[in-house]
Amino acid sequence: MSGSVKTGMLFVFLFYANGNFAQLSLRDSLQIEVAKLQNSTKENTDYIDLILELGLEQRYYNLDSLKILSNEGLKLSTKIDYAKGMAKSYLGLGTFYSDKGKYDQSITSLKKALEISVDSHDDQLRLTILNTIGGQYDYKGDFDLALREYLKCIEIAEYLNDQNMLSIVNENIANLYITQKDYEEGMFYYEKVKKINEKIGDPIIIAETMSNMASTYADIGKLELAMFNINTAIKTFEENKIIDWLAYAYQVKGKVYLKQQKNKWALYWYSQSEYLHEKLDDIREKITLLTGIAEAQLNLGKDSISRIYAQRAYDLSKNIDAASGIEEGSKLLYQIHKNNGDFKSALEYHEIFKDVSTKITRKESMKGLNMLKTKIAYEKQKEYLIQENEKALSKQKNYVYASLIILFIFLVITILIKRNAKIQKKLNRELILKQEDLERKEKYLHEVNHTKNKLFSIIGHDLRGPIGAFQGLIKLFKEGEMSKDEFIGFVPKLKSDIDHISFTLNNLLSWGQTQMNGSVTKPGLTSIENIVNENISLLSEVANAKSIKLINRIEPNTTTWCDSNQIDIVIRNLMSNALKFTPENGIVTIGAVERTKQWEIYVRDNGVGMSEETLGKIFDQSGTHSTYGTNDEKGTGLGLSLCKEMVEKNNGIIWVDSAINKGSSFYFTIPKARKEYKKTA
Q1: Are strands 663-671 and 654-659 parallel, antiparallel or unpaired?
Q2: Arithmetic mean of pLDDT, 290-311
Q3: Which single residue of 5, 260, 615, 637 could bond 626 by disulfide (Cβ 3.0 to 4.6 Å)?
Q4: β-pair type (549-553, 587-594)
């Protein structure tokens, strides 16, 4: 089953009557046989074997019975020194602790069973125990250790020619890859299992594999194949009354409908599985079922119902330390709490989800899988080479000596060619390095010259005029051609010009540094709210002069990982532009929208807007496109290209939406402050 490991043991058979499933007489017959022997004597191997088999039959119906009967079997086996009984008793106890989520206790019991089976030279029992141990490592997330145990199982199963266990173990390895979302490798093993199952010819075993393959096809989006496989499997399980696998198959069919966005149909099949689970004691598959129901209810907008099922799945997963169940449950609870506005709870579950996801996909767990890929590739290559060598030897046996002579001549020629090639390669490398150095210097000189021309253009166009006007006024005042009152009357205009010069010089210096490779981005924890508040204070006088209302919608928790000085320049330029192109009594709004890994900052105005032609030029770094504001404010045309460079240096993007006479909205993104950033800071 998905998320569980086959054990190769005999499971419960059921029969169907009056529209309900009822169990066949296997457990009843075992109980009768136990009662017969109990009346005579308990101290014989037949009685011990029967109670241990009965315990395993009770596993999915009354788990505590498995523990009671395993302990009883261990007690009796120890009394009469029955090694196989002791090993099977520890196997039963290991299975019990596994289903309770106590994997370390399970492994301890299973290793005791393994030691006894090795000492008693019982390879068949040792094979079953090793497979079960591999399952415990699988549940714990130690996939490399699980893989080692499964590889041991394959060697023993091949030695014993046990096709059933070969099918089981290869399918467990397939599930191991599927857990890691390596579907290509997983399907490779499923195809091996299908070939083994064809040899066995058991329709129930074939149906079990088809159920697991259907679940995998659903995960990779091959929904038609998934539906075909699960429908075929369901038919087999219904005909043979296999209630535990039928419950799983109904659940997989619900999953397929869920992938098709047919949530009501998904709930119908989940309800069929849920009804059967009332008769079972299979916590792992119940977790998967509850998670599927929760997701379907959430898709239908029934958050309150979804929350109940998601919480049950999460709590059960915690109880048995099922990492995948904790991951899925916390993910759903995060989404539900987020939808309901409970961001504190949502954040808590989101942190749990991220933590568990990281553990599941940690690199250490992939080592064994990568080793296996290497082993498979090696074995394939070795087999291919052996076949090719055999063919070559059979055809070329009479030409061995001639081939050796040719090989010697070829070797001598190769050495000479290699020597000459080495010399030529060295010369070519030196030539390429010199050419690359020349090209690099040429590019650098071109960029420096371009930067110089642009700086002179801006200085001549936008700074010389205001400075010349300032000099003229001072000269007129100094020479007495302008009275003090007249001069004072020009003070507001002079202040505006000086502010413009200062703002332009700051932009020029920042831009010049970036162009000359002198500006280094130093990211750190940055509060966007503080930067916006500072710029509102700085530009409030400009806003008041035009009766423009500045609105700050930045929340206090808008914390980012960026260079605060560079983002300060970006926000100041965007706010200055908004004030410049917004008429009197307008509104400029600054806000932020939270995305998954970024903050999206916007500066919105209801000003004059821009045409399509202007929109195509504003971020262009090759020119100095500039316009005048609603009160003839001057600009360098440098600010937006500088904003683009600064945003991109901080791993973000910038764009604009605008329409003539409706206003403009500038957006840019910057990374959110995450835990790893905080630790670095």
Answers
A1: antiparallel
A2: 92
A3: 637
A4: parallel
